[in-house]
Amino acid sequence: MSPMRLIILAVALVAAVLAAFLVRNLAGQTTVVQTPAETVERIVEVEVSQQKVLVAKTDLRVGTLLTPDEFKWANWPDSTINPAYYTQEIAPDAMEILTGSVVRSAMFADEPVMPQKIVQKGETGFMAALLGPGKRAMTIEISPESASAGFILPDDRVDIILTQMIEFEGDRDTQSQLVTSTIMENARVIAIDQTFGDVDGIPTLTGSTATFEVSQVQAELLANAARSGALSLTLRSAADAGFNEGEALANRLHLNDIESGGRKVMIYRSNKVEAGGS
Asked: Please, is 150 exposed, middle or buried when counting C-beta atoms within 10 Å of its C-beta (0-12, 13-18, 19+)?
């Protein structure tokens, strides 16, 4: 046998011995498998620092007169607190201070109260901020009987009805008749002077004045109508808010009276206007 072949056989023998040794060692080892039941879970609780923040208890409309019932304190994470928020730590008497303020911008329930969204008592400019360009704020006196028993609130839309005594020509002489007509439609209520009372033990919301967003000539119409007779409000459906593209619409007949300087005597025949005095 040649020397080269002897070397190859020796290498093969050594490799076989090593392989047998490795197999023996592996066969003697025990594999440990950890089942899910044996897994230990560690729960780490992270404590979030919070403060009490003043929020709206319910949805608040523009022009709402705020009372303590409109507020509440709610937990709020420190990391998301805006410097403008009212916190119980810094302003514990915020509810009392803000009572009597008026909502400038609508707020949703649980939304933090911010100075930019309200006008506090004694501050000026809140009504001007509510008006659209070219609009005027006109206030008239109302009563529960003339304002849908207190169900008319800021941002509602109403029709305004005038009831007045009109002179007309009869068969023999001039007579008087009570006439009712709608002088304005879809007028937006921007404020109600509200007080609370009880009717048969049931809380009601009433007011003594109502303020509307109108044009200059419409304001003149309302001022004239308030002197001419009794005004009543009828609440419009929310679905009709887009009537006349959301603008108040004055009765053209009554508007002509204002634009022409007014009439001293309105003449009616068959309950219809026929002519007017100077």
From this structure: buried
Q: Indicate the Cα dihedral angle 260, 263, 269, 273, nearest 10°.
A: 30
What number is the average pLDDT over the span 142-149? Answer: 65
CA 189, CA 170: separation in Å to the nearest integer?
A: 40
Hey, what are 171's tokens? 């068969």
50-126 fold: Type Iii Antifreeze Protein Isoform Hplc 12 (3.90.1210)
Intervals of CATH 3.90.1210.10 along the chain: 50-126
pLDDT at residue number 109: 95
Compute the distance between CA of residue 144 and CA of residue 164 in angstroms, rounded to an integer: 19
Say how far apart CA 245 and CA 79 lie, in whole Å: 44
pTM metric for this prediction: 0.52
